[in-house]
């Protein structure tokens, strides 16, 4: 029997990231018992908090933990639930008691640790992700990179798996990580059963198609903010790094350095992401052809545009339009 500790952070926990794993692990237990593959449950599951009770969503919901970290002396798998994005700094501070407990379970009991969505921030605080790869919600990528430069972030990934440390992408993509863990611990048959029971797309491995690029404006470099505004206001034009640095009267080398420091993107990457986001919006909301949309964001080479679009979204322009266009999608 494998002991699972699903952590319940204080106050701003995302309820679904607690209930989802709990229900899925329970369903695996039912699968083993009902099929006669085992006479006892595969997982022993505890909801574990710093305190026994956590109130969520301004009192609309509450979670009663059946254990605290002081009750669990040994566990095999720790699930770090997701927290709300506006609560990162406050959430880490409020839940700091989890950190030495997680580190102890990892170092002394060889526990495996998985973070769901923005739970990666709490996992990163333990140091267990240092010099490893991880993923998290696309909306938290830039802040995560700033806070934890020793960690390699893979923003397109739905799941990462390194040496018993796991992370998942944004929001409900945690379901894919739970399926991954079930496949790893229980085998293909159990994983397929659960994916069918909960109607989870077991093959999904890229979250780029869901990302919305809003530009990184949370910095104080006014010159770079002017450059960003110019790029966003001239999405139909072919804007070059040379043109931008000349317009702002700084050397090209200095401009690139300052731009990367402020936005975590090179100027070229930023230009490309702005244009791809504009193309995505057009593909979602208009009946324009792919070529018309390509020309409208300043590209004239179909192959180059297709390659660029797929790099940032994981889908071709045609596939993206078929999936997200409001008039083509039927509900």
List keywords for this structure.
single chain, 331 residues, alpha/beta, Rossmann fold, Arc Repressor Mutant, subunit A, 2 domains, two-stranded antiparallel ribbon, 13% strand, globular
Outline of this structure?
This protein is an alpha/beta fold and about 325 residues long. It has 14 helices and 11 strands.
Assign a percent range to the helix content: 40-55%
Hey, roughly how much beta strand do the residues contain?
5-15%
What is the CATH architecture term of the largest domain?
3-Layer(aba) Sandwich
Number of strands: 11
Strand order of the largest sheet: 5-2-1-6-7-11-10
CATH class of the largest domain: Alpha Beta
| CATH superfamily descriptor of the largest domain | Class I glutamine amidotransferase (GATase) domain
Structural class: alpha/beta
Over the alpha carbons, how many angstroms does the gyration radius reach? 23 Å
String of helices and strands = EHEEEEEHHEHEHEEEHHHHHHHHH
**Mean pLDDT score, rounded?**
93
GO molecular function: DNA-binding transcription factor activity; sequence-specific DNA binding
Domain HTH araC/xylS-type: 225-323
Organism: Flavivirga eckloniae
Protein name: AraC family transcriptional regulator
């Amino acid at each position: 029997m494998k002991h699972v500790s699903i952590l319940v952070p204080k106050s701003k926990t995302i309820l679904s990231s607690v209930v989802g794993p709990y229900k899925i692990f329970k369903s695996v237990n039912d699968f083993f018992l009902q099929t006669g593959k085992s006479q006892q449950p595969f997982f022993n599951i505890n909801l574990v908090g710093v305190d026994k009770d956590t109130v969520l969503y301004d009192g609309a919901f509450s979670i009663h933990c059946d254990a605290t970290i002081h009750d669990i002396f040994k566990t095999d798998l720790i699930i770090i639930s997701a927290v709300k994005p506006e609560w990162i700094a406050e959430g880490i501070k409020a839940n700091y008691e989890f950190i030495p407990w997680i580190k102890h379970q990892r170092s002394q009991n060889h526990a495996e640790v998985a973070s769901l969505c923005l739970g990666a921030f709490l996992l990163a605080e333990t140091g267990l992700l240092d010099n490893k790869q991880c993923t998290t919600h696309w909306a938290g990528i830039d802040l995560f990179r700033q806070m934890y430069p020793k960690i390699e972030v893979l923003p397109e990934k739905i799941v990462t798996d390194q040496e018993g440390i796991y992370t998942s992408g944004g929001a409900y993509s945690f379901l894919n990580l739970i399926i991954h863990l079930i496949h790893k611990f229980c085998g293909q048959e159990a994983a397929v059963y659960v994916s069918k029971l909960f109607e989870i797309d077991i093959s999904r491995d890229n979250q780029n198609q869901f990302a919305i690029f809003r530009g990184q404006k949370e910095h104080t470099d006014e010159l770079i903010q002017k450059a960003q505004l110019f790029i966003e206001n001239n999405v139909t034009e072919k804007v070059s790094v040379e043109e931008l640095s000349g317009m702002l009267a700084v050397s090209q080398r200095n401009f690139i350095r300052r731009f990367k420091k402020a936005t975590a993107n090179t100027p070229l990457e930023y230009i490309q992401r702005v244009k791809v986001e504009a193309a995505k919006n057009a593909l979602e909301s208009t009946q324009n052809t792919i070529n018309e949309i390509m020309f409208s964001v300043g590209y004239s080479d179909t192959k180059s545009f297709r390659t660029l679009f797929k790099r940032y979204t994981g889908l071709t322009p045609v596939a993206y339009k078929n999936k997200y266009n409001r008039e083509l999608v039927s509900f």
